[in-house]
Amino acid sequence: MNITDKFSRKLRDVRISVTDRCNFRCAYCMPKEVFDSNYKFFKKKEILSFEEIIRLTKILASLGVRKVRLTGGEPLLRNNIHALIENIKNIDGITDISMTTNGVLLTEKKALTLKNSGLDRITISLDSLSIERFGSISGSKYAPKDVLSGVDNAKKAGFKNIKINMVVKKDVNDHDILPMLDHFYGSGCIVRFIEFMDVGNVNFWNKEQVTSLDNIIHIISNKYEVRPMKKNYNSEVAKRWSYSGGEFGIISSISNPFCGDCSRIRLTAEGKLFTCLFADKSYDIKSLVRSPRSDSEIQKYLIEMWSQRDDRYSEERVTNRNYKVIKKAEMSYIGG
Ligand code: SAM
Ligand code: SF4
Ligand code: SF4
Question: Is 30 in the pocket of ligand 2 (CB under 6 A)?
Fold first, then answer.
């Protein structure tokens, strides 16, 4: 079944946050001052079990979802994540399952287990190759080499076209753009530069700190000849470019919003559904899943929810004068 929202957008992708916990404290996502030892993360019984996630994914697949991305928090902190992947892979209609991870727990064994369980694609986040900047941005005890060994392990396990996500903040790591492309030159990995986004309420987002797509292209063009590439599919979030070392992408939700083709729904670890990354409203699907409701009752609820969807936050960001006061979900909670 295909369902459409108020702007005729189909439901095609789900991003599932499997945990709200993380072994990093990236300043733009989980600033240390907020996510400290007093912070109350969800207890085990509060988060969706694998069975609950699988049931919901089956229902979503019956409504047109084809692609699943596992995220978090840090998804590799969730025990036996490969078992979830195996089950999702077997759901009728699901054609692609991927994961976004900070990569430091991606040992050789783990990467192989993920590959063998059916994970199709992997995205690894890395904001700088400098030990100092990586340390201060990630707020962790890890170093870039730990992430790079995760990338190598993913390659060894057979993952192709590995994506490397780099959030770019002006005057923080914009001078790492070229070193990053140089490092991954000819490697087959696709670096994706992400404009620093105003997700959540605690990352002190400020427009002045955004290095826009135009700025990024300008920086890269000083060294490489770049050419725009065609989209792989309509709802693709990254704009694609080629350079002599391969391909790179830019996710420019601030300077070039892409709400028009947005076919994504987001499921949080504690079982809330969001129809937009920036929504202030969510749908408590866990209560339904833990009630005696049947699959077809939940399906009906989801059809109604999607038909009411009129989110286009990034496009409205420019015109909606009140957007700053909206209470948004934090990135580590909603999963990016
Ligand atoms: N922990 C995993 C990781 O970092 O890859 C997965 C979850 S993380 C929330 C998903 C992606 O969101 C990461 O690539 C991260 O860099 C990105 N991200 C987090 N906060 C962001 C922000 N304020 N602006 C842009 N991207 C952000
Ligand atoms: Fe953790 Fe990923 Fe957020 Fe960094 S971006 S704090 S690694 S969830
Ligand atoms: Fe989709 Fe919302 Fe992002 Fe627009 S702002 S692309 S509707 S998630």
Answer: yes
Q: Which residues pair with 200 in a beta bridge?
A: none
Q: Do 104 and 150 contact (CB within 8 A), yes or no? A: yes
Range of the domain at 83: 13-334
What's this model's pTM, rounded to 2 decimal places? Answer: 0.96
Q: Does the residue 252 lie in any domain?
A: yes
Q: 208-251, pLDDT tens digit by residue?
A: 899 999 999 999 999 999 999 999 988 789 999 999 999 999 99
Q: CA-CA distance, 20 to 33, in Å (whole number)?
A: 16
Residue 184 in tokens: 């991954």
Domain count, the chain: 1
| Interval between CA 197 and ligand 1 midpoint (Å) | 10
CA distance 138 to 279: 26
Identify the DSSP state of 217.
H
Task: Report whether 108 contacts 156 (CB < 8 A).
Answer: yes
Domain contains 4: no
Taking the CA of 74 as reference, the closest ligand is 1
Is 244 within a domain? yes
